[in-house]
Amino acid sequence: MKKLTFISIIIILTTLAIIIVINLYPKEVKINAQGIKYRLGTEHLESEKLVNVNIQGKLYKSISGERRFKGTLDIEGEDIHVPLDQRKLDIPITNDGWGAISYPYFVYRKEDGGTESTGIYQYGSLVINNDFSKVTILVSDRNQLNDIKSATWSSEIGQMITVPATSRLEAISISNEMMEFFLKGLKLK
Fold this sequence. Notes:
Helices cover 20% and strands 42% of the residues. It is α+β, with helices and mostly antiparallel strands. It has one domain (26-183). The chain has an 8-stranded antiparallel beta sheet. It has a two-stranded antiparallel ribbon with strand order 8-9. The chain is globular and about 75 Å long.
């Protein structure tokens, strides 16, 4: 009887260890798909354009269930004011799938007498589904003075990029589905 109990405990512990390892092992994220970049609001119906989005990295999950994406995000035609070698992202992801796209950077300028500057470039936010197969990016608008340090987003006229999507209607449908918690009954148009 003792031997049977011991074997049962070993089987349970082994199964539990396998489940923990499978859940905590980083998931490879490779998205190279076409999406739609568009501006919200019915007066901006003609503002959409097709863009290629490439997301490469890993999605980590801690034992407490917290998720974190480490990798790169490249969007065709987007001007990101950060040196290419410093575009590695480290994004904490909330339980609802939201994370801020922030690029911390360091620049040394020989031509300016050896000046150094550091900063954080806020590109926007992303919302992902559980398996990272659908992504909606809320692109921060820069103010009229072209100040790269000041950015906003609005649910009435904000810019969005949704992947995978081939039309504005499909992109807005995916965004409404994935952002239901944040929108609290509001529907994007």
